[in-house]
Known about the structure:
The chain is mainly α. The chain has 4 domains: about 80 residues, Tetratricopeptide repeat domain (Serine Threonine Protein Phosphatase 5, Tetratricopeptide repeat); about 80 residues, Alpha Horseshoe (Serine Threonine Protein Phosphatase 5, Tetratricopeptide repeat); about 60 residues, no CATH class; about 160 residues, no CATH class. Helix content is about 70%, strand content about 0%. It is globular and about 90 Å long. The N and C termini lie far apart (about 85 Å).
Amino acid sequence: MEKKRQKENQTNIVSFIPTGDYYYKKSIQAMNSGQMNKAYKYLQRAVDLSPDDPMILLQLAIIELEGQRFEEAYDLLRHAYQIDKDNPEIIFYMAEVSGCVGIIHDAKRFAEQYLQIEPEGVYADEATEILEFVDIEQDDFEELEGSAEDLYRQEQARRSMEKGDFPEAIKMLEDLIEDRPDFWSAHNNLALAYFYVGEAEQAKALLNTVLRENKGNLHALCNLTVIAYYEKNEEDLQDLLEVLVKIQPYLWEHRYKLGATLALVGQYDLAFKWLRSMQKRGYVGDAGFYFWLSHAAYFSGHEEISKSAWEQLLEQDPDKEGFEPWRQEENNNYSLDALEHDRDYIVEKLESDYTSERIFGLFLLSCTAHKQEIIAHPKWIDVDQFNAYEKLFLAYALGHQFDMKNKVEASFIRAVSVPEILLEQYGKLTTLIAPMFQMWFVLCEQALMNNYRFTNPAAIAGANDYLFRSSRMLKVTKKEIAQQYGVSVSTLSKYIEEILMFLPNN
């Protein structure tokens, strides 16, 4: 009898396997109650479970649009449109998102298509506004070569570059160019990808080909200028700048490219002219636009505009906090012999074959006026080749907040406090004391490998200073050093003995 009852109960069990529709309904409920973050997560789950449901794709795309994640929205809507090409709502939002990603002819085409299907529809006014905007501002946009499919393939390659997957981007762009040999923007992006993987000569050859076949191509000129700047080829840089300063672009895309390039190479007045002209006309830029506008404004004497642009940047990219141009200028109050602001000296350290030299360079990166320039260079910092200690120093240089409850991170912060204290004692890094810092980073590398805890950074800094001066036969006593670093003579002696263990034997 008991077995029969168990069997009857089992037949009443309903297997619950959530579907995309289930999470879609949950997202609508969350939206109705104002819980947009929860709705977003439900929709992402719904798309995972029902990747070919056009209405679920549409709803997630709308949220992506509202969050100004235009590329993500474009991917979703493009997929939804391929599934249901007659849905008026999808067609309208294809018009909307096409305008946002700069495919203006598609924005116009989809807006016209929507009005043909639903001339009195819910989105009729918005579709009409899109058409009016395109008609008024048509001249401000470059009609990009190629079909929407070509532009989409190029966008996919650009995203691969942003993720650091340059080989994949190169393959995609080479395939695209093979199909469309006159697609010049794809040539320019391919040249950048070549440069990022260290193929500078191939990049320059491709850009020069673009200029031969498409004379005056501004993107090619700007890309060559950036390469000349990074390679410190002053002759080519000056020749290219003589051309750039004479250009009077009208298109927004050209003004942005020219302004950002001029800002990068330090031509701030002209950079501000072009970027500010866009902002005055109502241009709503991405994070990169506000970054370069802020720098160009600050270093050309427009501090309030710079700070306003930086606020807009942080709304889009909070991780840029700490890279403000006024902080850069604060760091620029240094003597000409301050090595922490010598770009070439730091790059030499970063490119060294020795770990101790590289972590020295990463330490200097944290306090140099050239931080953004060095970070932006495609070859000077290769995170994939870094060991665990180098990654810690890079995180420190970029302002990462370490967890002092974590023993490893706490030890590292005490370790990096040692050169901070030394730099504070001496005021700046000069050629006279640079060997003392080099000695410290040799010791530091060995100490980190041996899980040394660096319990008293001030005493360790004093010990390092004493050993350095003693090795140079400079007159110094332990008492003098102990007073300078605020420790007792016995404490100083203790740490001298401890760090001596980490000196290389040979």
